[in-house]
């Protein structure tokens, strides 16, 4: 099963993670363990890794709450998520300071957002001001 770089934002990738305790960060989180260029290989890897994890759980070498999962990431996924975070911060900053977002900033921020983010912009007309 050839793997791809899970951080390569230029390609579609199928990432596999292991939900476990991360001693470096001292928290339970999804730790990326592999990435593939198609979902068939991803599912095959998940099945094999899940079976191995089940054996480790039975032997007491893994916690009962650990599990394996995966997600498909489109090209530019990280860039779109970054744009959504910047947009949220800009809106919060604008609400706190009363200083609006410039047209250039606005166009840049909403140019390429993830599919789960939407923006509604309401403007006052000259009569309402």
Summary tags:
alpha+beta; 129 residues; elongated
Counted by DSSP, the helix tally is 3
How many individual β-strands? Answer: 3
Query: What form results from the Cα inertia axes?
Result: elongated
Largest sheet: 3 strands, antiparallel
Mean pLDDT rating: 88
Give the radius of gyration.
Answer: 21 Å
Q: Give the spatial strand order of the biggest sheet.
A: 2-1-3
Q: What fraction of residues sit in β-strands? A: 15-25%
Distance between the termini: 62 Å
Unreliable stretches: none
Structural class: alpha+beta
Approximately how much helix is present in the residues? 25-40%
Order of helix and strand elements from N to C terminus? EEHEHH
Model description:
- With 129 residues, the protein is an alpha+beta fold.
- Helix content is 38%, strand content 21%.
- The protein contains three helices and three strands, in the order E-E-H-E-H-H.
- The chain has helices spanning 39-58, 77-97, 103-110, and strands at residues 13-22, 27-36, 67-73.
- It has a three-stranded antiparallel sheet, covered by helices on one side.
- The longest helix has 21 residues, at 77-97.
- The termini are far apart.
- The model has no long low-confidence stretch (mean pLDDT 88).
